[in-house]
Design a protein that fits this description.
heterodimer, A: two-stranded antiparallel ribbon, 11 helices, disordered N terminus, B: mainly alpha, 9 helices, globular
Amino acid sequence: MSEEKNNFPKEKLFSPKNKRLLSDPIGKDNPITVQVLGVCSVLAVTVQLKASLVLAIAVVAVMGLANVIISLLRHGIPPRIRIIVQLTVIASLVILVDQVLEAFVYDVSRQLSVFVGLIITNCIIMGRLEAFALHNKVWPSFLDGIGNAAGYGSVLLLVGAIRELLGSGSLMGYQVIPNFVYNFGYVDNGLMILPPMALITVGVIIWIQRHRDRALVDVS
Amino acid sequence: MEELVSIFVRSIFIDNMVFAYFLGMCSYLAVSRTVQTSVGLGFAVIFVLGITVPVNFLLENYIIGRGALAWLGPQFASVDLSFLSFIMFIAIIAAMVQLVEMLIEKYSPTLYSSLGIFLPLIAVNCAILGGSLFMQERNYANIGEAISFGLGSGVGWFLAIVGIAAIREKIRYSNVPAPLRGLGITFIITGLMGIAFMSFMGIEL
């Protein structure tokens, strides 16, 4: 609990340190492009922006709450069984999210199929619980959870938008590219809808990010 | 029998865990630096998928599915516990991984020393939970089909990770642009491998 001593009890809710918890994961410490955690679902659900948005919101909800719960329980969890405790907490939250999605956005929930369940094994959530929530107070843990989930969600939305725009010429299901462009002979790139292009899109995003921020370049 | 072979081949090539559904990408990216370690992890995944998918199949069909408790008596026929499936599946997976780890440690110390460090990682590998969830979604008819689906998915994952590890070993000697090194190029190669695997798509089995 060494980190805890640095957190003075009178610290303001949005002190610079807490703000950094929220903003770092969106940019230079992004869970997907830098930490490489939780990649599976980014690739699979990003054919359309709508599905990406729903999954991003689901992950923000699960991760914020899971971090809070684990942080509240952090003194009561025996270290030997912490993984199973974390899995149980996450799985219960995911069940809630799944039921809510089925009740309110049934068609998107069908489209996401197994990937709602796979939030359980999303490595970012486990990773942040292990690395942060187990050793920190409730409020910073909550911010850390929201920040990381937002970093994850932002990549999800970016990839979803690129793929839907280039692959079907629409965003959120609405046609964006006007008809006269098609009349001039523009054709949607059908390749973007296929699964492998998600990987290549993420690869290119990583390339651009590391090109702009040389500190992230992998030297090995 | 034909049905089983067809499910096995389908889940290796057409519905490949990595290239068609991107499951287990975290460990796929993290452990694929050398062929030797990726072979170890690949075998562990085949092993665990081959066990957890049939066990979860039994759980789904005799305990938590809609009307699965009918064998207890007619008054249980309308019970539907399927909302519990996520938490039950992950509990079974964690328990099975622990059990397998203990059995291997007891009976085959050599295998344990090569697989040992990977086994705890596997409990949170999405390919394993994904296997069980796909099994639930596709409604396989009997346990034989569930076993062949589990093993087939494992073999598909094994092929993918060994393939990428071999390519990454070679690509170390190539002149990759600096920002693409490591992660970026691995993503792009996986994408290209996925396009290659798509050529299996039209095959009717």
